Amino acid sequence: MKKFYWNIVFLITLSTSAQVNWERERGEVQLPVELFHSTYAVNLPTAETIGSRELEIEISHRFIPTIKSGSKDFWGLDGPVINRLALSYGITSSTQISLGRSNLYDNYELSIKQKLYENDNELFPFMLTFNGGTAWNSDHPVIESSDSKAFQFFAQLVFNTMYDKKLGLGVVPSYLHNSHPACKENQYSFTLGTYLQFYLSEVFSIVWEYNPTVTGWRDYHNPMSFGLEIETGGHFFKIFLSNSTDLNQTQFLSGADKSFDDGDLRLGFMITRLLFL
Amino acid sequence: MKRFLSAMILLSSIIIAQEYHVNKSEDNLVKFISDAPLENFEGVTNYIDGYMYLQSLDDLTDNQIYFEVDLTTLDTGIGLRNRHMRDNYLETNKYRFAFFQGKIGKLEKVLEDEYSAEVKGTMFIHGVTNEITINGSIRKIDSGFFIETEFPISLVDYNIDIPQLMFMKIDEVMQLQLKFYLESITQEEE
Q1: Sign (positive/negative) of CA torsion A101, A106, A109, A110?
Q2: B13–chain A nearest CA distance, Å
Q3: Is any Cβ of chain B less than 8 angstroms from the Cβ of A79?
């Protein structure tokens, strides 16, 4: 019996002599919370910022004639257009600054986007981000560019969550100061934006956005938009139908001129490209 | 009899081979290079771990070499590209590690402390295993070894699907570069 026992020990020792002691020691790396893919839904921002030292170039158009114009205005593509060119830069992985210009009143917009909070949870991941800034109407038909009324300010809190990496929901309460520069009285607006985005595949997604004014001044209608997003490498291509033609945030937050229900929709697109410095 | 067996056990632990672990405090580097026309980029990480197990450089019987790379840590410099790489191509939530397990088949002395090695084994990436042969250099240093190797990895072999959409420029064959330090752990533990 004893002999048998020793034989076992001997065998075990022999077999373990070829065993390695190595074990994995490092745990899992904490990855950033990533919900929406792009930094914008349609007009409203998502809680995402671009990465540190990254540069994002944006080109957006909204065609003014409605799609009702048909082939005469080529469903709006003949123009005229409202356009926006913008550059964003990631100062850190959670802070980005943007400078944009829209041809509507030659509106220059300087803004900052700051991630505030990320909840890394499988069931209920969410992000909270601040976005805000100032805009200068440098060529307004009524207001002198040097007038203090030529400046507008906005601040937004962006809440994003996502279900199963497929269906994203955003809620964006916004405050806009000096909503209607041409108005003698100083106007303000509170809006409560919502958007939904459904990711069909790694390339295609559909997006819907609605930004009703809760209180304060508003143009005739609440802006509503829907469209398709195509994501390829460092690019996002988005094509929309919307009752709004505004692009810079201070202009968009003040409401839309046409009615969504009447089908007065305009074609629009946005192209962004990420670059690394 | 008992004494003899005890001696045998003791002996078997003395002739135990040396084990070397990746020294994680050193400047290890894992890099892949995608060299497609118009757009070339690299992904880097220092999250390599693993071991080498052998009698000595003169006695290759029963040697083993294993290393793994945590793919979630690969950084290409652009956040969105990292995200695409993790979620769409490498699917790191399912296959977090790429690893290689093999044996040194041939060893040739090229310099005083440097050997060129041919290592045959199995590479596991993205849920797919392939038998491959890697050529590299093993340099003897004070604390253990310094390993350096470079070899190609074909994405098709590992079932990594890159959609051929506009502006998607990724090389089908990536060049992998590995540099890492191994330190002896046997002395400390015996």
Answers
A1: positive
A2: 7
A3: no
Using alpha carbons, list the distances in angstroms from residue A99 to A58, A237, A245.
10, 20, 19
Rounded distance between C-alpha atoms, residue A57 and residue A80, angstroms: 22
Residue A122 has a pLDDT of 82
Q: What pLDDT digit, counting tens, does each position of B131-172 carry?
A: 999 999 999 998 899 999 999 999 999 998 876 665 556 778
Are the C-beta atoms of A82 and A107 separated by less than 8 Å? no
Q: State which amino acid sits at residue B163.
A: P
Q: For the domain bounded by B17-189, which CATH number is listed?
A: 2.40.128.110
Q: Which residues of A touch B15 (CB under 8 A)?
A: 17
Q: Does B78 sit within 8 Å of A203, measured CB to CB?
A: no
Q: How far apart are CA B190 and CA B187, in angstroms?
A: 6
Taking domain A33-276, whether its CATH number is 2.40.160.40 is answered by: yes
Query: What are A175-207's pLDDT values in tens digits?
Result: 999 999 988 889 999 999 999 999 998 889 999
For the record, the structure tokens of B180 come out as: 């890492």
